Amino acid sequence: MSQTPCCPRPRPLPRQTSRGLTMVELLCCLCISGLLLAGALPSLRDLRLRQTLDAVAAMLETDVQYARSLARATDRTVRLAVQATADGGSCYVIHSGPAGACSCDASGAARCDEPAQLQRVQVQAATAGVRISTASRSLVFDAGKGTVTPTATFVVTDSEGRALHQIVNVLGRTRSCSPSGLAGYRRCA
């Protein structure tokens, strides 16, 4: 005779696998991510500032060529004047008419006296971290000869002290160099 057990044998429960992270694991991941981000932020700021420096220098070079072309196309004298703004930034205006006829006000908007005509204004607010300066207050682009007087060196400087020089020769051609030897630029002689 066979015996049947009174109670069937219990089956083992299926093994439960954990899904997700524990709070401790999550906090460790957040802590490590925060440390990595804190280490990367200064280099990201530096990268943004360097790109702004490059962009402002390239825009200035383009605008010098624009002023030269505009003088030739309209057969009129065109000027490019650089000024400091009240907030510690800088601006430049491209205009026709006499020297000093156009200027930037405290907000960076351009204002021109008659008979000058404003062609372009570019403002670099102090908060942008990049400033343009030059010893020449105004460049004159001669329509007849296609020349620029005086020759000038524009210095584009960022808040970290890095600088790019945009050197404009008598023919209105611009070359770029860096006094500190920034990557991608020749060292200024």
UniProtKB/TrEMBL annotation:
Membrane topology: Single-pass membrane protein
Cytoplasm is among the record's keywords: no
A Pfam family matched in the record: GspH
Family of the protein in this entry: Belongs to the GSP H family.
UniProt organism field: Pseudaquabacterium inlustre
Gene3D superfamilies, sorted: minor pseudopilin epsh domain
Keyword Cell membrane: yes
Record's protein name: Type II secretion system protein H
Record lineage: Bacteria, Pseudomonadati, Pseudomonadota, Betaproteobacteria, Burkholderiales
Subcellular location(s) of the protein: Cell inner membrane
NCBIfam families for the chain: IV_pilin_GFxxxE
Main location: membrane
General secretion pathway GspH domain segment(s): 60-172
InterPro entries documented for this protein: N_methyl_site, Pilin-like, T2SS_GspH
Domain of life: Bacteria
Listed transmembrane segments: 20-41
UniProt keyword annotations, A-Z: Cell inner membrane, Cell membrane, Membrane, Methylation, Transmembrane, Transmembrane helix
